[in-house]
Specification:
Elements (H helix, E strand, L loop, with lengths): L5 H4 L3 H12 L25 E5 L1 H4 L8 H4 L3 H8 L19 E3 L2 E3 L2 E3 L3 E4 L2 E3 L3 H4 L22 H4 L13 H6 L1 H4 L3 E6 L2 E6 L3 H8 L3 E5 L2 H9 L13 H24 L6 E5 L10 E3 H12 L12 E5 L2 H4 L17 E3 H28 L3 E5 L1 H6 L9 H6 L4 H7 L11 H19 L30 E2 L1 H8 L4
Parallel strand pairs: 1-9, 5-15, 9-10, 10-14
Antiparallel strand pairs: 2-3, 3-6, 4-5, 7-8, 11-12, 12-13
Helix pairs in contact: 2-12, 5-19, 10-12, 11-15, 12-15
């Protein structure tokens, strides 16, 4: 684990950048990509090396899981296509259907799909068969270009290499994306101003440096806010300025971005790398967090009135999406039981989530500006909050709610930017994000990479399976799907 003391946290970013430049450039012999590692071309060149570091948003996680039908529309893969790269020159950890979302007993649950009346799970795979039947690129002898790991937090980027070392200690996505079992893992510790900084050779960070991209996108931090928010019970002030979480986030993000800049510059024989980072959009702008008034209107459309027993918490501002399953279950008692606190955010909790988002975004933008100013790398920032704010309210509304408002399946599918899990974008949303990154890349490099056409992409990887069978019915979220969704953040 990375060790930071108060004296290290007080170091200027540029000093840490220079130190990490020397650190990351000293030994990059494993894991090694045998392809052209030195003197990378400009990012606009069709042969440019592009690497993506991130979490589920980067990985192409849609409908509560990873599956090839969705991964092909990940924003990194869309950007790679605009650079002229293909599946040989931009690789991802491809997953066969029914995909991998979480674990239920002895099975891996697949992605979600809309069956015409509700959202359910596409299928399951015995855990013993995941390696042999689902992991289509497990034997690729070099690192993937898309290194996004669902569930990854900022600290994980330098420190996680398998499920046990990632946040929570149970995230198997680290096992089959970082693949320490294939490459091996070697902890490395460097002393900076008398403090030890440790990172892992099978981490996203080290693999990205070893891959040697001329262009790298980095979008992490979402789960540092999303995890507490989706619990429904975030600790008061969890991300406030000066809190333990904020200090750790600042130290981890500084080391990560500075290390990438220095390591990539060294790896590419002095070429100035281009790094584009993304900020954290408001989690409350996603369909997973339903404004209380919207939730009340939806419940009224089903039972003729707002939820009779109300909520455990007073002053509720948001109801979490899985509550749609809870109210239809025996636990809801037909309206006789108050909605539990884990399914809601009250005013104070919503404020804490918003504060953490703003504080962490300030860290991201300030560190990016400092590293860019050092001249070691060209660093630009995509303000994802602004990207979402520019979209219409209907585009940020869940498919089920659009159906509930009377839209046809086709109309709802063409409108929403989010997949069925309510947090992760569908292919349209991934296209919007790809264009936001492309705009910043073009500005940094005076390039002219063309935009993706989001409207030309299929809206959802499982759309078109069973079509509407209950015309006019208001769709619901079935319990198995709700359990699978909750597993995303466990």
């Amino acid at each position: 684990m990375t060790k930071f003391t108060k004296s290290l946290l007080a170091l200027p970013v540029l000093l840490l950048t220079a130190t990490l430049l020397m650190m990351t450039g000293c030994s990059l012999d494993d894991p090694k990509d045998p392809s052209d590692l030195i003197n990378a071309p400009s990012v606009e060149d069709a042969g440019a090396r592009y690497v993506a570091v991130g979490n589920s948003l980067t990985a192409g996680f849609m409908d509560g899981g990873l599956m090839m039908a969705g991964q092909q529309f990940s924003y990194p893969n869309l950007i790679a296509g605009q650079l002229g790269l293909n599946r040989s020159t931009f690789t991802q950890p491809w997953i066969a259907a029914p995909g991998i979302g979480g674990v239920s007993g002895a099975n891996a649950t697949g992605v979600l799909y809309y069956n015409g009346s509700s959202i359910t799970v596409l299928g399951t795979t015995p855990l013993a068969n995941v390696q042999s039947t689902l992991l289509l690129a497990a034997a690729q002898p070099t690192q993937y270009h898309n290194l996004g790991v669902p569930g990854a937090r900022v600290h994980d980027a330098m420190n996680a290499y398998d499920h046990a070392s990632g946040y929570g200690g149970t995230n198997s996505f680290f096992d089959f994306i970082n693949r320490a079992a294939l490459f091996g893992n070697h902890p490395r510790t460097v002393t900076i101003q008398g403090n030890d900084v440790t990172y892992q050779s099978a981490s996203q960070f080290y693999q990205a440096v070893a891959k040697g991209g001329a262009l790298t996108t980095l979008w992490l931090g979402n789960n540092d806010v999303l995890g507490p928010a989706t619990s429904g019970e975030p600790a008061a002030g969890f991300g406030n300025q000066g809190s333990a979480a904020e200090l750790q986030f600042r130290a981890d993000y500084t080391a990560l971005l500075a290390g990438l800049a220095g390591g990539l510059a060294q790896r590419n024989n002095g070429l100035t790398p281009t790094i584009v980072v993304g900020t954290i959009p408001s989690v409350q702008s996603t369909p997973y967090f339903i404004p209380k008034a919207t939730f009340d209107a939806y419940v009224t459309s089903r039972i003729g009135q707002v939820w009779p027993a109300g909520t455990v918490e007073a002053g509720v501002q948001y109801v979490l999406f899985p509550a749609l399953s809870w109210i239809s279950s025996p636990a809801g008692g037909g309206g006789a039981t108050p909605i539990p606190a884990e399914y809601t955010l009250d005013a104070g909790e919503a404020t804490d989530v918003g504060t953490a988002t703003a504080v962490y975004n300030a860290i991201i933008t300030n560190v990016a500006a400092a590293v860019d100013g050092s001249g070691i790398a060209k660093v630009g920032v995509v303000n994802m909050g602004n990207v979402l704010a520019a979209r219409s309210a209907s585009e940020k509304t869940h498919f089920l709610f659009l159906k509930g408002l009377g839209m046809s399946t086709a109309q709802a599918a063409a409108t929403t930017l989010f997949s069925l899990d309510g947090v992760h974008p569908n292919s349209h949303g991934q296209g919007v994000m790809a264009n936001a990154f492309i705009d910043v890349i073009n500005a940094l490099d005076s390039s002219s990479i063309a935009h993706v056409d989001p409207a030309a992409l299929p809206w959802d990887p499982t759309y078109g399976m069973p079509q509407d069978t209950k015309a006019g019915a208001v769709p619901v979220l079935d319990p198995q799907a709700a359990e699978a969704m909750a597993g995303i953040w466990r």
